[in-house]
């Protein structure tokens, strides 16, 4: 392992580990550990790729300002890259977002503008509309816009995809992924269509999202709500090419979160809630096979951010996702 000149060089080239103890039917299932990126998630890759593309085509000048509407992992990735490259970063965030996330972003040097959570697209205070307005009002500002920025899927087409192919030594049958912006699905799908068209792209989607029903029935449904963070949509983002998907699974919050908890207990991997959705879909896919396959899914971010939620029995019970606290924890001591 080399010594790196900057954390930016540590983005990507993430390790892969095989699932050993969970039941994978006749298949072998491998996890690409994107939580090992320096900013803690898969989004470091696209932050770097979108910023470097904007530098190359002149939309971003030295000392310029980046604007994005997100409180999620993309914000953390952008904050990390902006801090290292000397850009100002302005993030517009709905006020329902967890304080911890805002503290983390501010600690990285990002400027955070809070806005209302109770208004929808088209309202001037809606976080995306506000980000667009701030971009128009700020000289030299660049609106990153992960949902439509082509450098988002490119990061996966040229980075994540080739890494997976090499780590699997060219023997791979299916990749299970989720959709937030669609960058991962579209980038990996394009890479495999070109390199190994027999590799299936399998979508694992939260219950309530419109994407899996759209793949299965071709019809747009009314979106519901879900607790899993970072994936599932109420629209199809411009960066999301669903024609690349050959199979789709719908996973509810209970299955996603109990699976993420099992992943930690059984395999020692601390993943976030979207990882739970992906792994649950991947396990269902693996168990449904009649012949052995080699399957990859992603650990998109670290479970650190979810310790007081998904990994907390009381929170899980409050949400109706766990029947009773597990033995030996605080629940037994105080009851
Ligand atoms: N998991 C997590 C935790 C995320 O934050 C995201 C991105 N919002 C994804 C998965 C999905 O990735 P993509 O945007 O490439 O569809």
TrEMBL record:
Its cofactor is pyridoxal 5'-phosphate. GO terms for molecular function: transferase activity, transferring alkyl or aryl (other than methyl) groups. GO terms for biological process: cysteine biosynthetic process from serine. It comes from the Bacteria. Keywords: CBS domain, Pyridoxal phosphate. Belongs to the cysteine synthase/cystathionine beta-synthase family. This is Cysteine synthase B. It comes from Hypericibacter adhaerens.
């Amino acid at each position: 392992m080399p010594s790196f000149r900057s954390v930016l060089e540590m983005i990507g080239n993430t390790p892969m580990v095989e699932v050993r103890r969970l039941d994978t039917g006749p298949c072998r299932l491998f996890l690409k550990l994107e939580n090992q990126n320096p900013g803690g998630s898969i989004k470091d890759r696209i932050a770097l790729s979108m910023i470097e593309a904007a530098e190359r085509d002149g939309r971003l000048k030295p000392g310029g300002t980046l604007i994005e509407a997100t409180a999620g992992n993309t914000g953390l990735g952008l904050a990390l890259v902006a801090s290292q490259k000397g850009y100002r970063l302005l993030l517009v965030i709905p006020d329902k977002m967890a304080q911890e996330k805002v503290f983390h972003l501010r600690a990285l040097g990002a400027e955070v503008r809070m806005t209302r959570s109770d208004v929808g697209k088209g309202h001037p205070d809606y976080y995306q509309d506000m980000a667009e307005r701030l971009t128009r009002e700020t000289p030299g500002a660049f609106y990153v816009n992960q949902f439509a920025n082509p450098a988002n899927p490119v990061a996966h087409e040229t980075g994540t995809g080739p890494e997976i192919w090499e780590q699997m030594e060219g023997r791979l049958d299916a990749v299970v992924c989720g959709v937030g912006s669609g960058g991962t699905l579209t980038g990996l799908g394009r890479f495999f269509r070109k390199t190994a068209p027999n590799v299936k792209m399998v979508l694992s989607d939260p219950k309530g999202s419109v994407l899996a029903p759209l793949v299965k029935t071709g019809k747009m449904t009314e979106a519901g709500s879900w607790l899993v963070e970072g994936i599932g949509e109420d629209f199809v983002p411009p960066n999301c090419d669903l024609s690349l998907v050959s199979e789709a699974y719908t996973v509810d919050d209970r299955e996603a979160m109990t699976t993420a908890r099992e992943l930690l207990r059984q395999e020692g991997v601390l993943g976030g809630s979207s990882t739970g959705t992906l792994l649950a879909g991947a396990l269902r896919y693996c168990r449904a096979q009649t012949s052995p396959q080699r399957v990859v899914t992603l650990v998109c971010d670290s479970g650190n951010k979810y310790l007081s939620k998904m990994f907390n029995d009381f929170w899980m019970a409050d949400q109706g996702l766990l029947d009773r606290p597990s033995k030996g924890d605080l629940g037994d001591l105080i009851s």
